[in-house]
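Hi again,

Forgot to attach this to my earlier email, sorry! This is the prediction with adenosine-5'-diphosphate bound. I've pasted everything inline since the attachment limit keeps bouncing my files.
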Amino acid sequence: MFTDTEETAVYKTAMVGDPDLTSRLLDAGVSFSGEEIEQTSTLVTLLMWFLPLIIFVAIGQVMYKKLLNKAGGGGSAMTFGMGKSNAKVYVQSTDGIRFSDVAGEEEAKENLTEIVDYLHNPTKYKEIGASMPKGILLVGPPGTGKTMLAKAVAGESNVPFFSISGSEFVEMFVGMGASKVRDLFRQAKEKAPCIVFIDEIDAIGKKRDGQLGGNDEREQTLNQLLTEMDGFEDNTGVIILAATNRPESLDPALTRPGRFDRRVPVELPDLQGREAILRVHAKKIRIADDVDFSKVARMASGASGAELANIVNEAALRAVRDGRSFATQSDMEESVEVVIAGYQKKNAILTDREKWMVAYHEVGHALVAARQTNSAPVQKITIIPRTSGALGYTMQVEEGNHYLMIKEELENKIATLTGGRAAEEVKFGTISTGAANDIEQATKLARAMITRYGMSGDFDMVAMETVTNQYLGGDTSLACSPQSQAEIDRQVIELVKKQHEKAIQILTENREKLDEISQYLYEKETITGEEFMTILNA
Ligand code: ADP
Ligand code: ZN
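Structure tokens for the complex follow:
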């Protein structure tokens, strides 16, 4: 741009990147001047102003959405619904779960029948002045039917059933959990008589330890729960059932009289229980008339109710896969193995040597067991690989209901566990990785004998270890000095070693039987306990 006047012409330009320009202009006698003008482009300016704004709005949106979700999805969340409880109301009718659907938990059912009776006929109890426990704690391993039992109590008494999981109380924002508890109890009192079921109560009911950085939200929620439980008078008709598989971690304030003072154990089912559970679930599928439930129950030793339900369902699925219209005994037996060990690996190709090793390993276990007890130790041995990673396994015979074990039995058990490895040593003169699981179990057992059962030489009746969660794998924590720990380790090794040597000795003495049965297993891939005993006693 330029301005033309009479005498001079004034030119304007932006900065020119030429270092010699000044001297050339001076040489030419031009008068000039310059000024700095801000050069930021409009786009950059806009971004600088609006980007932070956009980011803030986005964060706000995300937080708002979270709030909405947590508060149960209502649009009114921000105004007054914040922290509204998620408790679902199941108004039970006759199609609900009944005690008859819960099999094998007779003691628990008996215990809860009283609650049902109370809900049907509270005056009977009021007249005599008896008050129902406010809270009942169902404790036991996962999948044993605790939720079912709670529902059955509601179903039998024909009252509303509120259910919420302990973890649902624990929120991102301090105070929300407590407000949910308040809300839940308000609803419950309106609908009384009713059942409130809190699953996984350990999520909020953990011991308050006063540690720095403890979970404030959880403690506030727990305090609110305690306050609410104290707040309603006896006989309002609100019965709180709670379930946990970690009873030892609960705050003592929660389990004291007046709160969850009644504890109903819901244990893994025994043989009869398992049979009953199988029968209950088998009613839901089409199944052959000649299915031997007692045999299936014996095979599924240690299974929980949930696993048994799964076994029945697997059997039905298997029948469909094979194009049959009902499930048979063999479907049931195969699905027990599926649930225990996984599916058969159809195309796992073991080398010949591997297959021989697995055969000897499994027979080693069985033979050591049989020679120690002089009875059939196994129901079945198979060397068909499974998806769980097991290359072969031995299905043990259920020893009936066994509540006590003596020292010799435990030692024999350790010897049996080492029998697989021992067979590899006796036959092949080398050892394989196949014994990892056996080693783990043998060690666990030996450790328990020394640290918890007082079966060591010199610790007498002193507990060197305590079990921290009995229903979830039974983890333990050491409670002794480092010197004792070293001594424990030494004794555990000694104990296992002695049993391992015993196993090797048994197999060496029975070398012919070991070869004979292993040969048979190698050829047939699956043998029954009877076949095993026939060859052994031949
Ligand atoms: P928990 O609450 O103890 O973890 P659930 O009550 O949720 O266990 O049980 C899970 C499933 O397992 C149930 O839906 C049911 O199908 C089955 N089940 C568990 N225990 C039993 C039982 N005693 N009788 C019948 N079915 C059972
Ligand atoms: Zn083994």
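Confidence is low (pLDDT under 50) at residues 1-5, 70-83, 89-95. The longest strand covers residues 238-244.

That should be everything now.

G.
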